[in-house]
Each structure stands twice: as structure tokens, then as C-alpha cells.
Amino acid sequence: MSKLQVQGYSNLVKDSASGGVVNNDPQAFIEYQKKRKIALDKLNANKALENRVSDMESDINNIKSDVKDMKNMLNQLLLKLT
User: Fold this and answer.
1) Residue-range definition of the domain harbouring residue 77
2) Over the chain, what is the mean pLDDT?
3) Is 72 within the bounds of a domain?
């Protein structure tokens, strides 16, 4: 596999067999990894927040249902008392 320097870019080489371009700058790779980790952390935080909101919506709907049931029981009790 021979590598050819990409003209105008000191940190890029082209693999003559596959035609792929490779960045030889290790610092650029480290920066890429850091940015990717930050992006994944944000994505995971957003997913966790969405899950919390979904759980809260479910809890609210359950409370609404419980309140509705209690209202029905109270109405039935009032009907029996009158």
C-alpha cells in the first residue's frame, strides 16, 4: 500500500490502492474523539430527558384517571345517601 501526499495538505495522505484519504495528524484525531464524546453525551442527556418527560406524562395520566375514579365513587356515594 503506497501513500501519496495530498497536494496542499501536509497532514493528508492518499492510499493509492483504495483511493482513500487519511488524516495523519494525531492531534486532529484526539480533537475529533473529544467532540464526538461531547456530542454523544448531549444526545444521551436529551434521550434521558425525553424519558423523564414521558414518565411524567404517564404519571400525570394515571393521576387524572385516579381522580376521575374518585369523583365517580363520590358521586355514587352521594346518590346512595340521598
Assistant:
1) 26-81
2) 94
3) yes
Does the residue 18 lie in any domain?
Answer: no
Residue 7 lies inside a defined structural domain of this protein? no
Q: How far apart are CA 69 and CA 59, in angstroms?
A: 15
Angstrom distance (rounded) from CA 62 to CA 56: 10
Within-domain flag for 14: no
Helix (H, G, I), strand (E, B) or coil at 1: coil
**What confidence score (pLDDT) does residue 74 get?**
97
- Could you tell me how many residues make up the chain? 82
Number of separate domains in the chain:
1
- Contacting residues for 18 by C-beta, under 8 A, at least 6 apart: 1
Q: How far apart are CA 81 and CA 74, in angstroms?
A: 10
The reported pLDDT for the residue numbered 26 is 92
